[in-house]
Every structure is written in C-alpha cells, then in structure tokens.
Design a protein that fits this description.
CATH architecture of the domain at 17-107: Alpha Horseshoe
Number of strands: 2
CATH class of the domain at 17-107: Mainly Alpha
Radius of gyration: 20 Å
Strand order of the largest sheet: 1-2
Structural class: mainly alpha
Order of helices and strands: HHHHHHHHHHHHEEH
C-alpha cells in the first residue's frame, strides 16, 4: 500500500519520484497503474511517454505523447515531447512542423525554438542553428543542451571563440549533473563530447570509459536531447584512441 493510499494520484506522485531518481522502469509501472485507476489522468500517459523517450525508445513513446497532446490541449509539454520524439526518430520535417506550429500560439516558448535549432543542425544549417539557440538563450533557456548545441553549431560555423565559450559553460553544467548522479552513464558520455570539442582528448577518452562502465547492457540512452548506445561509446573510444596514438615512425 502506498503512503497516500491506493489512488491514482498516489501512484502518479510515486512515478514522478522514481523518474527523478532515474528509475524509469519503476516510474513507468507507477504511471501505468495511475492511468488504470483514473483514465482521465492524461498526465500519467504523458509521463509514460516521457520515460520511454528517456530510455531512447522514441518509437514506443511517440503514439503516447501524441495522444496526450490531443487530450491536454492547454499543456505545452506533450507537444514539445512529441517534437523531440520525432527528432529522435529523425523525422526532421515533421518535427519542424510540430515546433513551428507550437510557436504560432506560444511565440515565447524557448524549448520550441531549441527544437527548431536541432532541426537546423541536423540539416547542416549551422548558422541558422547558432541564431536559433542564441534566441532560445535570450528567451531564458540556459541549460546544458543550449550551450552544448550552440558550441557544436558555432564550431561548424568557424566561430571558434563562441564555440569554446559555450563548451566551457556546458562543462560547468554537466559537472553538476555528474556530481548529483555519479553512477549514470549519460553525464560522462556528454562530458566526454564536451572535452572532445575542447580538444582535451585524454579527458574525453577517460569519460567515455566511465560511461561504458555505467552503461546497462542493451539499453539506449536519451539525455539532454542526445541519444546514444554502447555502440556509440565504442565508436567514440576508437576515434579518440586513434587521435591520441603517436604517429608511425618513419624509416
């Protein structure tokens, strides 16, 4: 018996707690039970979709998020999560339409602007991505994902000073994530890419090895709008080791 009794709200709150701790399977179980007890609690359906998205399972998450968005027309979050699920599935044109449509009614929504920035980045439109992320920051979104995307887009645009500045800001923020959850793979993987962008290849390799140590076999991860698996970590390690290897001796 839960502390608040056998109620949908009690299960929903337990699900939120489990999700915050990163125990996504347990969270999904709680949210499903909440929805079984109260089929009008559409936020539970939304949270199931979010948990699946965090597990890197956008294919399963997408129909739940779309359904929640239709049932919760006042709420912005299900629409945003639908857009990011589409991004994860690389349905870029549909994702762009989702974010653009939301901005028609919510022009001050920085997460939708970030969504468009990811769409531009995926299409190789580096300067557009830079401008959109900067706009998102001006609108108040100052998180790891904004600095990380801006750093990469600026690097592609040969805006080296801007890139380095935002890689360093991204590093500061991801350090806090690692301090709070030192046994989670995502923080190390993302910081490894930050170090890589800064040219600190040895530190990047160390973080990739830590990410591999904390990976759950067969699981795909999704954090700060970045998706990765053990195969991605192995590929990153191989590239870093090749870059760190001394050049072959002549003669």
């Amino acid at each position: 018996m839960l502390f608040g009794g056998e109620t949908a709200q009690s299960y929903f709150e337990e699900g939120l707690t489990a999700a915050m701790k990163g125990d996504l399977e347990k969270a999904i179980g709680y949210f499903r039970r909440a929805y079984e007890l109260d089929c009008s609690l559409h936020s539970a359906q939304h949270q199931i979709g979010r948990c699946l998205l965090r597990q890197g399972n956008a294919e399963a998450a997408l129909p739940l998020l779309r359904s929640a968005a239709q049932k919760m027309p006042v709420s912005v979050s299900p629409v945003l999560d639908t857009g990011f699920a589409l991004l994860q599935l690389r349905h870029i044109d549909e994702a762009r339409k989702t974010f653009s449509s939301l901005l028609q009614t919510r022009p001050d929504e920085p997460r939708a602007v970030m969504g468009l920035a990811y769409c531009a980045f995926d299409r190789g439109q580096w300067e557009t991505a830079v401008n959109l992320v900067q706009r998102s920051i001006e609108m108040g979104r100052v998180q790891f994902d904004t600095h990380f995307l801006l750093a990469r887009a600026a690097d592609k645009s040969d805006l080296i000073d801007v890139s380095i500045s935002h890689y360093k800001k991204a590093e500061e923020l991801i350090n806090k994530t690692i301090e709070a959850t030192p046994d989670q793979a995502a923080g190390y993987y993302l910081r490894g890419h930050v170090f890589w962008g800064l040219g600190q290849l040895g530190a990047a390799l160390d973080d990739m090895e830590n990410a591999e140590k904390y990976m759950q076999p067969g699981r795909r991860y999704y954090a700060y709008n970045e998706s990765f698996s053990s195969e991605d970590i192995c590929a990153a390690k191989e590239s870093l080791r090749a870059a760190l290897a001394p050049p072959p001796s002549k003669g």
